[in-house]
Amino acid sequence: MTLSWVAIVRLGLVQMCLGAIVVLTTSTLNRLMVVELALPAVLPGLLVALHYGIQITRPSWGFLSDTGGRRTLWIVGGMVALALGGFGAALGVVVMETSFTAGLALSVAAYALIGLGVGASGTSLLALLATATAPHRRAAAATITWLMMIFGIAMTAGVVGSLLDPYTPALLLRIVAVVVTGAVILTTLAVWGIERRVIARAQPDPMPFREGLAEVWGEPRARHFTVFVFLAMTAYFMQELILEPYAGLVFGFTPGQSTSLSGAQNGGVFVGMLIVGIAATGLRLGSLRAWVVAGCIGSAAALLLIAALGQAGLGLLVPAVVLLGLFNGMFAVAAIGAMMALAGEGRSDREGTRMGLWGAAQAIAAGFGGLVGAGAVDVLRTLTDTPAAFGMVFAAEAALFVAAALMAAQVVGAPRPAAAPLVPGE
What we know:
79% of the residues lie in helices and 0% in strands. The protein contains 15 helices and no strands. The radius of gyration is 21 Å and the shape is globular.
C-alpha cells in the first residue's frame, strides 16, 4: 500500500513545522545578534554552520529508514529535539545581553540540538515519502511538501515579524515558545498512524551503513547530482545570514520589518514554486533542466539588483527581495523534482540513502555558504563602506548562481548513459 494524497499532505505539515522553527534561527535571531547586540555577523554564521554541519549525519538517518526502522519515532523525536534547540537558541540570545559567555555556550548547545533534530526528523520524513509514495506521484509529493515548508517559513516570518515590534526579550521568548510547542503538537498529530498503513520495505536490509553509502556514491548519476546540489545550495544560502542585517544597517529596517522581509522573500519562493508546478507538471511547459537554469540566472540578476539598490539608496528592497524569492523558488522546485526522480534510480531500496546524501550536501553547502557570506561581509566592512561590502558579497553569490546554471545544463535531466555500469546488487 502506498501513501494517499491525504497522507502526503499530512506529511507536508511536518515539513511546514520544520521550516517554521528553523526560520526563527536563521532570520530573527541572526538579525538580533548582528544589529541589536552589535556582534560580528560571523558569529551567527558559525552557529548556523554548526547546525548545518551536524546534518552531515543525514545519510545515516536515511540509511536507517531504508533498512527498516521506526520512521515515526525518528520524525517526532527529531521534532522535539528541534523545538528544544529552537527555544534554547532564543534563550541564548537573551542571555548574551547580560553574559556573552553563558549565552554563547547555551547557543552552541542549542544549535547542535537543532542540527540533530532537523537531520533525524527531516531525513526520516523524506525517506518515508521516497519509499512509500507511488513512483508516478513522487515528483508531485516532493513539490507539495516543499511548498508547505515554504508556506510555514513565510507565514512564521510574517506573523512573528508583526508581533515582535516593539522588541523585548520576554516577548521574543513567548513567541518562540508558542511556535515550537505548536510544531511538536502538529507534527505528532500529522504523522500518527501513517507508517502503520504503508509498507515502505518488504524486509530489513542487513548491509552495513558504510557499504550502503559507498554503493550509492558509486552511481555516477547520484555522485554528479550531489556535486550540483552543493554548488547550487552554496549560492542559495550565501545571502541567508546577511540579508536581514543588510536591511537593518543599510535601509534602517526594524527587527519586525526585517523579519517580515524574510517572510516576503519566502512568499516569493512559494509563488515561484507554484509557477513551475503548474507550468511544468500541469501544462507541461519546459523541462526541469530549463526551469533550473532559468531560476539560477534569474536569482543572479535579482541579487545584482539588490546590491545596486544599496549603492543607489533606493527604497525598493522589498520588491527586489520578493523577485529573488520568486527565482529561488523556480530553481528549487525544479531541482527537487529532478531529485525525486533520481532517488529511484540505481539499486532499489536506497531512496532514503540517496535523499540523505543530497540532504547532507545541501546542509554542508548551507553552512558553508552562510558562513562565507557572513565572514566576507565582516572583512569587507573593515575595508569599505557598508553598502559596498554587502554589494560585493551579493555579486559573488550571483556569480555562483551563474556557475550553477552552467552545471545544471549538463547534469539536471541529462539522459542516463546507455552503457552505465551496474552497481553491486542492481
